[in-house]
Amino acid sequence: MHEVSLVNSIFRSIELEFPKQDVERVRGIFMRVGLLSNVEPVLMQSAFAAVIETESAFRQATLHVEVLPILVHCAECDKTSLVENYKFVCACGKPSNNIVQGTELLIHKVEFALDDD
Fold first, then answer.
1. Nearest CA to 28 among 93, 87, 108, 116?
2. What DSSP string runs through 32-73?
């Protein structure tokens, strides 16, 4: 399950970005995950629950995963369309492989406890 590796990478990224005293105050990690990112949100939540058992700095944190749909931009009509059922076709009917959303795997936001919590 590569989600465990992803969770570990998320933790390492936060540890590199913030001082240790701030890392211990992390209460929420907000991810944006595109449908084409090859990440299953349910498996990501399960991996997160397993990993925080060994990562004491993140025991108070929760993971929030926002799934982003696939959007393509059409060069023919200059519009952006939602991809449904993995059919990469613009609303005008032309095929498009210009993906503008759906491949993301981003830490969107990190929430911290207040100093008096």
1. 108
2. EEETTS---HHHHHHHHHHHTTT-GGGTT-EEEEEEEPPEEE
pLDDT in tens, 90-109: 989 999 999 999 999 999 99
Identity at 11, one-letter amino acid code: F
Q: What is the pTM of this model?
A: 0.87
Q: Are 90 and 77 in contact (CB under 8 A)?
A: yes
How does pLDDT run across 28-38, given as a tens digit for each residue? 999 999 999 99
For tokens 């449904």, the residue is 84
* φ/ψ of residue 110, rounded to 5: -125, 125
Q: For residue 110, which of 48, 44, 18 has the smallest C-alpha distance?
A: 18
* Domains contained in the chain, CATH given: 2-69+101-112 (3.30.2320.80)
